[in-house]
Amino acid sequence: MLFAQMSARSAELTALAIKRLRAEIPAYAQLDPETLAPATRRTIDQLMRVLAEGRDLTADELAVFTAHGETRGRQGIPVTEMFRGWRLAVRIAIDQVVATGRRLGIGDSQLLGLTNELLALTDTAILAVARGHIDADFERTRHDQQRRADLVRGILFGTLGPAEIRVQVERYGLDSDREYRAIRARPHPELPADQVARQLEHTPSGDRPHGLLALVDGDIAGVVDHMPAREIETAVGIGPPARLDRMEPSFRSATRAMATAEAFERTGVYELADLGLLPAVLADTEVGDELVRRYLTPLGRNDSAAALLDTVAHYLGNGMRVDNTAKEMGLHTNTVRYRLRRFQDLTGIDLTDPDRALEAWWALQRRRLSRER
């Protein structure tokens, strides 16, 4: 009888609950009462009806509470605030149970039993509410990530116009009149995408920079207004500064730098110019393959040939200094000189000729690239 009377007063209880929620919890205060009313009314109706009938919640009735949680999640109410609101509503319901029970002449022991029934039912209901909020959070997060990724792709691939970019980037704190740098990084099992994004967003000052990153074709890509720390355990390419509506060339440069760094097993942040001729080696496979065929293939694949090529590679990498090469390789300088002469005799390359030395370097880099693949 008590719960039946309270069910008849569900509109009054709804108004009371919403008034208290908006007065005591900031997240609810930001929403219009008319927005809060439908889900609150359905929840109160459901609870009072089940309590009046003295039974457990059915699956369909639990779905009402799940929908309540989904609604609050979509309205942007954090789960902690929603739980605060639920506890407040339960306290209001208990106060109303006690007040109504005393008007009806119900004894304290019976009121205690009715209150415990209410608490048990709301404990069951809140689990369904929480599931609904989690589902809504997941869906909202997925939608936000997709919207963010679509914006990033539109900027990087040049498919969005200036006006559309200006409107969309404001919500992320970007200024469409400023210049940013396109950036692209390749995650891997030891450094997953979320960790890559955090490292790229970090600045030495600790301030959160203005930028926008998203998962694009398996990579972390986007725009930043700063040069990230160079020390990162993956290949990262960064392009030159550009306006957001002219970012496509910067992104192409960043992509090429990243691809080159990854191909040559380099980690860190690279502009295209930092990589010298390596991007050309990677891109112009015909030239590299021809130089390998002409100069390196005739040497064979034995240990002796490998020693010669390794020595020449170190020699070219050490500014063509025999002493530095010997020290780096742990060899006597005469051994280095012998191997260099032997290489020149077998290939016909004069390493003192800058053009021929460049050809040798190019062939060695192409050979290295082919072996790493």
TrEMBL record:
PucR C-terminal helix-turn-helix domain: residues covered: 308-364
Source organism per UniProt: Nocardia ninae NBRC 108245
Residue intervals of the RsbT co-antagonist protein RsbRD N-terminal domain: 12-148
Transmembrane segments: none
PANTHER family listed in its UniProt record: CARBOHYDRATE DIACID REGULATOR, PUCR FAMILY TRANSCRIPTIONAL REGULATOR
InterPro entries per UniProt: CdaR-like_regulators (IPR051448), PucR_C-HTH_dom (IPR025736), PucR_C-HTH_sf (IPR042070), RsbRD_N_dom (IPR025751)
Name the record gives this protein: PucR family transcriptional regulator
Superkingdom in the source lineage: Bacteria
